[in-house]
Amino acid sequence: MDTLRERGLCLAPEALVIGTVSLWGRVISDAGGHRAEYGYPSRLMLVRELLLDEEVSGALERLRAYGVPTDTIPLEEAVIGVSAATLAFQAMSKRASHTIAD
Question: What angle (nearest 5°) sits at the alpha carbon of residue 17, between those of residues 75 and 100?
Fold first, then answer.
């Protein structure tokens, strides 16, 4: 999570999911964190503000298919500083585009 906060996020036009991953096999540490031969999510968190209210439960249900703990996380907890302001603006823009499309 620290690496994610330091480097910021690229927001796709859909949901944003962050989380933690269990790594095994050959694991290599580098400046950006770790790389591994094998990995699987150990916890998934959906950034709630980036979806419309009616989209949240369906997105969480799809994440539960991984069989790991899932939850929502506030945008401000997912990122800090300028990245959070940028993401908040993009989230607002996404909501506006949904309203226009409807």
Answer: 70
Residue whose structure tokens are 């910021």: 8
Q: Quick one: pLDDT band at residue 82, thresholds 50, 70, 90?
A: very low
- pTM score of the predicted model: 0.65
Range of the domain at 82: 2-101
The secondary structure element, H or E, covering residue 34 is: strand 33-47
72 CB-near residues (< 8 Å, 6+ apart): 45, 46, 47, 48, 56, 60
CA geometry: angle at 57 spanning 12 and 99, to 5°? Answer: 55
User: Total domain count for the chain?
Assistant: 1
Helix (H) or strand (E) holding 20: strand 17-30
33-47/17-30 β-pairing = antiparallel
